[in-house]
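Shipment paperwork, digital attachment
Item: protein structure file
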Amino acid sequence: MDMLRVLLILIFFTQPVFASEHTYLPSDITENSEKILGGIESKAGDWPWMTAILYANQADLYNAQFCAGVLIQDTWILTAAHCVSGQTASAINVAVGIYDLDNFSGSRISVKNIRIHPQYNSTTSQNDIALLELSQASSLPTLPLYSGKSDILGVMLTAIGWGMADGTTYWYYPAKLRQVDLPVVADSYCNNIYTPDLISSQLCAGYYEGKDVCNGDSGGPVVAKMNGVWVHVGLVSYGKTCENYLGWYGVYTRTSAYVNFVKQYVPDVSVYPQAISIPGLNMLLLKE
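Attachment content:
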């Protein structure tokens, strides 16, 4: 681990982000929860569009994984800008549909292009979203993007990732995918913690303590099931390090605000609700 990453973990940031290498850290945690933080281990096959973002020069997948993303089209991955900012495409691989970092029979796919939102601000974490174009197509299922404009305050989201988990006497990085349910809360909860205040393209989710995403979950999705369809509602952007705060409200990039950005590169991306035309009518209705 380089010195910069050590400092990112140890120093109290105003806006720390959830990306780090796998490192065992001491802790005074006494309850044996072994989860993201307050979550559960996922079941193999539940999230087939989940992807691990990997360092290409690290052969071992467990050590190579540093962020997460989702497959939104056969050659496109959606993730956080802060995960890939400053990286070259050749430095990154992606494992699609992976569940266990220690046991993966699929292929590591190289990245052809990185498309970071042009207004991404690394200081404020605004527009923290990016696309990775894969060098070869994946045949696995894709995750639709939530494009709705309605208020989702109070909606329960599921965050998914391989981020830091709390063990009996230490924090560790799990090999198997984990998940935690977090509600969308008013922006004021995050505005009381972070500076600057949230903007409309971000959302605040979580609890005061006990449940949270952690270091290493960056870029991973928060999803919701709407009318039987799992949709991508947001992605992990930043928050307080959970081993210091035992969980807190976190800030997520709001998917619906970036559908047009995604469509610039992935015009046929699946969205929900879908706009459908009615024959004989000069109007569009939302199919929900």
